[in-house]
Amino acid sequence: MRKALFFIPLFFACIAGCSQSTEPVATADSFFPISEVSSWQYSTSTAGDIANQIWKVGSEEVVDGISYYSVVISHPGTMLAASTVYFRCNGTILYKKYAGSPEFIIADFSLNKGDAAYWDPYLKVTEKTESIMKFDTGLHGDYQYTITFRKGIGITLSTDSGAVYNQIILLKIEKQGAGIIDLTDNSPKLL
């Protein structure tokens, strides 16, 4: 009986301590609204060369039996060829796929600030608000990767500082029915 009296308060203390997080939970398509976007325009810096990059959203396509949105990434004013990548949102998870390769997770928006990404042991959620979610590996040797999402907009900043430094900063977004949204004044500046 004494043991039962001890465990009952302990049980309720555990329930109170294990309550749901108060951090906002969002779906992947709320932070990467690919079905509502016509295009994203980024300023890019790769190994010191600055250029523009346009991500043009195509139609839904079935690839390897799974439905994705195709995105053609072009590099106006450069000799770089356009490439196609595929994205899909499934609940809180955002997936990316290159042709001929398996899909991989970019983000899971159910994670909370401080949580490690289960698909990448170095990646952690370093910021999470109602409208912003940022993932960062921290510096490991000479490598660091960050990606920031803005609710209703998509990827606003991505930095990959490995052997070749690469950064993209969102300048403009074209949303279906809303026209072009210029984010130049609200975007971070190229480093």
Brief digest:
By secondary structure, this protein is mainly β. It has helices at residues 2-17, 28-31; strands spanning 37-46, 49-63, 66-74, 83-90, 93-98, 104-108, 116-117, 120-128, 132-136, 145-150, 154-161, 165-175, 179-182.
Summarize the topology.
Blueprint: H1 2-17, H2 28-31, E1 37-46, E2 49-63, E3 66-74, E4 83-90, E5 93-98, E6 104-108, E7 116-117, E8 120-128, E9 132-136, E10 145-150, E11 154-161, E12 165-175, E13 179-182
Antiparallel strand pairs: 1-2, 1-12, 2-3, 3-4, 4-5, 5-6, 7-8, 8-9, 9-10, 10-11, 11-12, 12-13
Describe the 3D structure.
With 191 residues, the chain is mostly beta strands. It has two helices and 13 strands. The chain has helices at residues 2-17, 28-31; strands at residues 37-46, 49-63, 66-74, 83-90, 93-98, 104-108, 116-117, 120-128, 132-136, 145-150, 154-161, 165-175, 179-182. A hairpin with a 2-residue loop joins strand 4 (83-90) and strand 5.
